[in-house]
Amino acid sequence: MAQTRTLAFEIGVEEIPAFDLVDAVKQLERKVPALLDDARIPHGAIEVYDSPRRLIVMVYDVAVETVAETEVFKGPAVRIAFDEAGAPTKAAEGFARGKGLTVDDLYREEQGGTEYVFAKREVPAVKVSTLLPGVLDSIIRCISWPKSQRWGAQHELFSRPVRWIVALFGDEVIEFEYAGLKASRETMGHRFMAPGPFAVADADKLLEVVRAAKVVPSHAQRETLIREQVETGLKAELPQKTLVEVVNLAEYPTAMVGAFDEEFLAVPEEIIVDAMLMHQRYFPLYDAQGKLSNKFIVVSNGDPAFTEPSSMVTSAWYVPVSMMRSSSMTKTSKSRSKRMYQRLMRSYSKRSSAPCSIRPTVSYLWSIILLQKRISMRPIGLTPSAQRIFVRLTS
From 26's CA, which of 121, 169, 244, 347 has a CA 20 to 30 Å away? Predict the structure, then answer.
């Protein structure tokens, strides 16, 4: 039985956009087997892992050497390959040259009553370690990104700057370089909880080291963790689009429950849910009767033990709530609210002059409305369409 090893290839990057990451994984699952087959590298199962800061390709049961082969190629008919005098024609010469042979190396064989010329070529066994640098270079370049960038003095393109590369064939580091980075056996962990670097003894240990460094390197596993953690007694709404984005924003997802004052449930449900899902990537929670509650799920990239409570929950429409908890406002808090209101209005005036969808317009108007109701100020600087929305929301 041929000797085999595991190939581990990790591309460490700055945070890749969520939906680009999903597409990159699909591309690698499709293209890596083809690249290995084209290089004649015998291999077993292929698995692709991911997190916002890495793409990992694991190839199991990779042969140490390729298989020696004898290749046979069928050429043109003899009557075309040779003229009446038996001299080779350009057809025969071109066929032989294309196979790296001479006309004298060709032989004849009859098939179906017609005689053809054939070429036979011996392909010797080659050490796979000598082929892998070219294969890894093809893997990293085969990914098509909606938007790519250059960084530093490098000319290579990638979705985000590449910061480290792990390339191991068994316990051997593959001599490979990309964008000025040399492949090594050192990977990085979670950006905040376990930055690293961490040495990987051999290819089979890479995933184990990554997981120990507070990274969940699987989209499916991160989604499962989130779904398990949102079981709070209330029903969470998890739209697939928002869920996919949240899953690919965190390397170590931890779901937490946030809340806002119940008085703001008077705001139309569509506006609250829109602000949560579209702008904040939070998940609304509903009671047993299907009624929206004042609680929501936020997914943190880390563990609460590593998070400052004051920075756990922030949202554009939630900020006014935290500023105005009591019905009576002090002179100082009212002044602060007025300044915030004026900033919102100036910012909205700039937004409304550019094309934008109704979703950000409506939720942004409610930020203004929540302040306006408490400080008795009339909205100014709104476009005619925004004024109509404002009237409809406040009527």
Answer: 169
